[in-house]
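Continuing from the previous page of notes. For each protein in this section, the sequence appears first, followed by its structure tokens. Read the first protein now.
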Amino acid sequence: MTEPSDIPSVQSSPPRTKRRWLRRTFWSLLTIVVVLAALVLLGPTLISTGPGTRFVLALVNHQIAGTVAVDDLSAGWFSGQQIVGLTLDDPQGQQVALIDQIDAPDVTLLSLLRGNSNFGKVRVVSRELHLVQYDDGTTNLDRALSTTAAATQPPGRSAARRRQSQPEPLLPPDLRLELELTGSRVVYAAPQTDAVELKDLSATLRVLGPADLAGSLKAHVEQAGASGRIDATFSAQDAFDAQGRPQFARATFNADAQLQDIPVVALDRLLDQDDRLLLLLGPVLNGRLKIEGHDATLVAHSEHLEAYAVLSVSERVMTVQPDSRLRLHVMPGAWAKWFAPPDGQTAATLVDPVDITIKFARGSVRLTEKGADWANASLKADARVS
């Protein structure tokens, strides 16, 4: 007869708890992967909905000092992008831009994530753009698009940092773009001057890489009751190197720009001339600049100016061709502005208007990457004062 054992029996059971934990982990990970994949695939669709659009705008507005709002946004991984009813306000809540529509049919989200700079055709329909220049030279557009950190940073520090940094390329090396811009109204306001208004604006820009640029601009110009028109086309070959850095001295330009009754006060304020151009030229300016390769012809006339110049560029030297001429009808006010002596010195005072006529025999100036070397220019001309 067998005696009962004092050792308790041990029954083997499968590690169900461990298997359940592994099973739950597997299905949890699979669920996360599926959800993430769905979010990635449906991301553009979600962004294009009202809540998704508001979420994206909240991220954008957190990064800039101004405020962006849109009525409708359409995005796609493999399709083009569209924005309808875009507004941009400055930090004070004043409207800077109102754009009816932006169409970018050749731009996909996937190409943007890859850093592709081939944007293809982009069409912008702008209803109103209101630019305001402040006394420090910045504009409301600068302040609206600045980062929140830059908006609270003293201007002097950021400017000093920019001066210390190395200049960067102006264009991406692989940039491709066909931009079409139409706008009903563009207003530019500067200190101590009437606002300049552009109406019926139409502009194009074609970029087939930094070495191949072309564009056009048409608009009516109005200021303080004066009305004029600008009509210009241009193309530039080799104006930028392969890295997108400017090299204008090596470029070949073709352009045809016509100015009709352009208010001079607008140019005066834009160039910060303190009425110098207005007193020298008169209230309106007409002219035409035509550039063909390395040759250029300039014809301009206003109430006090008649100019005709033929210029040519060869081996980085710009030459003024014979028969180029300039006539100025100088008023006493213009004389005082342009020939004002340093403090404490006296100068000749012009009592009556005079005519200054200059006929150029020849002249030349060397072009550098920084501009014309006027300090070492040579000129031979016949000047008469009457």
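Done with the first. The second protein uses the same format. Note its length before scrolling.
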Amino acid sequence: MVSGDGQADKTDYLGNKRHNYLPRMNVNVDKKIQMTINNKIYFLILSFIILSYDVHSQYNWEYKTKEDSITVYVSEVANSDFKAFRASLIIEATGLDEIVAILIDVENFDKLFPDIRESRLLKKYSDNHIIHYLINNAPWPVDDREGIFELKCLYYPPFVQINFDCIDYNYPVTDGVVRMTKGTGYWKVTETGKNIFEVIYQYHGEPSGKIPAWLANTMVVDHPVNTLNNLKKIIAGGKYRNAKVDFID
């Protein structure tokens, strides 16, 4: 039997006839709505995980120094001889795009990070998903270190978070250089006022090979301070002032 709207009647599980009076829906519209809902749920879950990162970590941050607008904390890490650092900076910029563009410009990392000998892009899936290679100069007589890092970015106003992890990747090892295999950290850039931003830089890694923990730990404060000072200089130089990052609205 057909109901008044031209749709066939259906029977329920008891055999009783029930009429289908529901209007036909546009399937394509339904799919778009569902995709939008799914994307929003995904980003909410992902942002919750990121925001909860420190809460569930084993870090016990100890204040070490404050230089101008830069503050540095360090922490012991369970099952590791090497300390983690967390540094923050308050800075003026034209927008999130300007700062984030610097932090994902891997081929110019030698200008951002101290002691970087070389950095090159290996694969770019998008602005918010990058794999890159770098070599870091180490003090004599320690061998230089190299690593392959994967960057993944999340934009969730008012912040952008850039997570980076040292990964196993099919790429030739440089002669005389030790390949790092463990390291994880992030950048978090938050707009706190008109053209005012807080930048957080956190990292913990295992340098691999033979390197005294005391030597590596002597750099755990100087490295983030020098890096954030370099960031300030790059922003002051104005090169990225008109930068546009694809994933930032």
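What the second structure shows: Confidence is low (pLDDT under 50) at residues 1-8, 10-15, 18-25, 50-56. The first helix runs from residue 27 to 51. We return to this in next week's lecture.
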